[in-house]
Amino acid sequence: MISTSSKSDRFRRQTAQLDLPPRVLLGPGPANVHPRVLTAMSTPPVGHLDPTFLAVMDEIQDLLRYAWQTENELTIAVSGTGSAAMEATLANVVEPEDVVLVGVKGYFGNRLVDMASRYGADVRTISKPWGQVFDLAEIKTALETHRPKILALVHAETSTGVKQPLEGLGELCQQYDCLLLVDTVTSLGGVPLSIDQSGIDLAYSCSQKGLGCPPGASPFTMSAKAIDKLNSRRTPVANWYLDMSLLSKYWGSERVYHHTAPINLYYGLREALRLVAEEGLEKRWQRHQTNAELLWQGLAELNLVCHVEQQYRLPTLTTVRIPDGVDGKAIAGKLLNEYNIEIAGGLGELGGKVWRIGLMGYNSRPENVILLLNALKQVLYF
């Protein structure tokens, strides 16, 4: 039996002012947040149908169109994490027995398979070893074989650090009359990407990586062709909360109440997107590439090997092979406990085999690279 005094002590600890260590978040996300974003989030909330907040929503849409390089009218922030936006892409265009072809080369390709299956899709897959990419010929053969209504691929595979080439995919999908659905969770804001130029019909992302905002307000975009698929459904969208035929009325000119938006998170997302626009996409992409190359050079000098060939490496997320005889989890624990630096281990097939190091958004800075490399040297060799 717990004594009354023990309960009181525990309650006092639980109700004490929140005091967390100042971590440097160099894992796969979330990343540290720009101070301007935190300041924006401290702005007092207004109502979710207040005209001033509706104007904020309009600004978010315009800024997202810039960040994604698209003219898609239905470009919004889903009130939820990136997984909610991921599910929204499938929920709105998949009907029972639709053939959905998923390229699986990592953990999140498998998640797409799981989600599509739950909506009754006839899911087909093509696979590559974790750390490799699909070439255009492989995808063309699969489209010819399976004739899917949707092709789903991960542009930036967070579990492997692989950047899937997108060139030519839009044209292929037009040729085979299927929608192109792309995961840009770890690429938006840090990796060259153009929705319209690449012929992408559906894309989703998150707020806590390349955009440098806390999680919970997740970008989503849908082409006119994908909207036609939504509007011609034989069955209702099976997910009410993520039904774009309803959400579009809240984000569009009708302004029909759908749900209470996470107002302060949207303030933060707006500011994060303003920072993207102020820096400019090309400069931002180059900053991420330059800092990633600085990291890769430093890792090589520490005799650490990257898991992915350089031409296919993400500048936002690097996978590093854990040397033989090294306890990867213990090293990550030392970085966290002794240096306040967070990196992550591998997922799925790469569990225990790699570390995942993120340089995303506000965190993609040379001082963070140098800090991490010096700390790694200490915990590995001293």
TrEMBL record:
GO MF annotation terms: alanine-glyoxylate transaminase activity; L-serine-pyruvate transaminase activity
Enzyme class: transferase
Transmembrane segments: none
Cofactor(s) needed for function: pyridoxal 5'-phosphate
UniProt binding sites for substrate: 356
Signal peptide (UniProt feature, chain positions): none
Protein name per the record: Alanine-glyoxylate aminotransferase apoenzyme
Pfam annotation, one family: Aminotran_5
Keywords for the protein's UniProt record, in alphabetical order: Aminotransferase, Pyridoxal phosphate, Transferase
Organism lineage: Bacteria, Bacillati, Cyanobacteriota, Cyanophyceae, Pleurocapsales
EC numbers on record: 2.6.1.44
